[in-house]
Amino acid sequence: MAVLSTSLPLEIWMVIVELHEPKANATTLRALSRCCRALVCLCQGILFRNLYIPRIFHGWPSRRDGALARLEDAFTQSPHLATYVQNMRYRIEEEDSENTTVHWILNQLTDNLADVHMEYVSETSSTPYLDWDTLDARLRSSIIRVVQSPRLRSLSLSSIKNMPFSVFVSLSSDLTTVKLEGVEVKIQPDSEGLESTNSDGTPRRVDLVTSRTKRRLPRINNLHYYCHDTGGVLASRPFVFDLEHLQFLHVSWGNEPECAQGKELMKAASKLEGLACLVDSPHKLIAGLANAMLDYGLDVSLTALTIALAHPTAMPPTPNPDEYDLFLGLIKELELLAGRNTVKKLLIHFDTTKDTHDRLMDSLGRFDDVITREAFPHLERFDLDIWVHCSEPYGSRDYWAECRGVSVIPGLRFGCQVMIIDD
Q: Considering the entire predicted model, what is its pTM?
């Protein structure tokens, strides 16, 4: 092995290695590790800190298999490499039930895991969720083992149904960030034992009441909770999380169950600083949000507010299309908050179709009447995002100029930023 230059102390070489950490260029890090044995562990730690198990690319199925095989070889030849993994992202595939390589890799990950992101991405709209019950017991056990890592600080799960409630009762007490999007749990009595896993990865049964009383609940300060009505993790009482220190809340809004859940979360969070509400259908309204914010004291604590409105499909038919409110009740809610808020950053997001966008452009001037210095005395920044879904290139300088014309809000420190994104 080569010897380091005597003109540079080891500390300088370590700084050079750390400077390559953001890009984690494998070739460069391998070369640096060959300079001195003292740099090997540092370079390996950077290379294996983030683990990504991608989805299957049907055009190149061998691409994923090859990557998994190489990772299996690395962990087999040098088991200590698995201890470096702190952040893991896994695109779950139904075929993984029979993929023993995936099971083995998941089981090698250690208690050093700090951030886990697991998601299922459906290829058809008819089956948006992965059914937990259809997965092989070995894969379920491996997933539970990772999700329940004892030092986990951040957990993200997406598009999974029939997940055992006991999985969430036994999460790490160190958790501070949780993102649950379209995660449905099995609704069963608290007195029943439910599925969990032992330290060796074998399934076991858990008494939910005992588990709740013996452990400290995770103190969550950042919660993303989308696409839930009554079948979500937070449908249980008491909550499986300690929300007293919650600072940032992201929730679905618009129908009765979603609004009721959102209000209860606002009530539980006494130190909320940021709130994001998603109205994901043109058949829903943002109505009731302002009163909820005022009822639970957010008028004196909230500094960041995000409202996302979606028109993913054609607008509902109405006798007079001009009477349909493209803002889904937002203008009235902003009027109710006028002079009764401490919002510094306001983001309004539209996710819309090409046809709806044309009418939306003619209505954006309504913001000039409600977002003023008098109505939002603390406002420093107002961002307006418009995502347009269309099958062909769309947008022109005229549209951009029109957006910019309504984006300058009198008295604000910063102008509004507008983005038009074409599919």
A: 0.84
Burial class, 113, CB count within 10 angstroms (exposed 0-12 / middle 13-18 / buried 19+): buried
What does DSSP assign to residue 306? E
What pairs with residue 87 in β-bridges?
50, 115
Distance CA 264, CA 251 (A): 11
With a CB cutoff of 8 Å and minimum separation 6, the contacts of 170 are 148, 196, 206, 211, 215
State how far the Cα of 299 lies from the Cα of 252, in Å rounded to an integer.
Answer: 20
Which residue from 336, 406, 417, 337 is spatially nearest to 384, judged by alpha carbons?
417
Walk along the chain (423 residues) and give the pLDDT tens digit of each residue: 455 555 677 777 778 777 766 666 777 777 777 777 778 888 888 889 999 998 876 666 678 889 999 999 999 999 999 999 999 999 999 899 999 999 999 999 999 999 999 999 888 777 889 999 999 999 999 999 999 999 999 999 999 999 999 999 999 999 999 999 999 998 665 434 445 555 555 555 545 555 555 678 999 999 999 877 666 788 777 889 999 999 999 999 998 889 999 999 999 998 899 999 999 888 888 999 999 999 999 999 999 999 999 875 555 555 454 567 888 899 999 999 999 999 999 999 988 877 777 777 778 888 888 998 899 999 998 888 888 765 544 455 665 555 555 555 555 565 565 555 555
| SS3 track for 138-157 | HHHHHHHHHHCCCCCCEEEE
The two counts, helices (H) then strands (E), for the chain are 14, 15
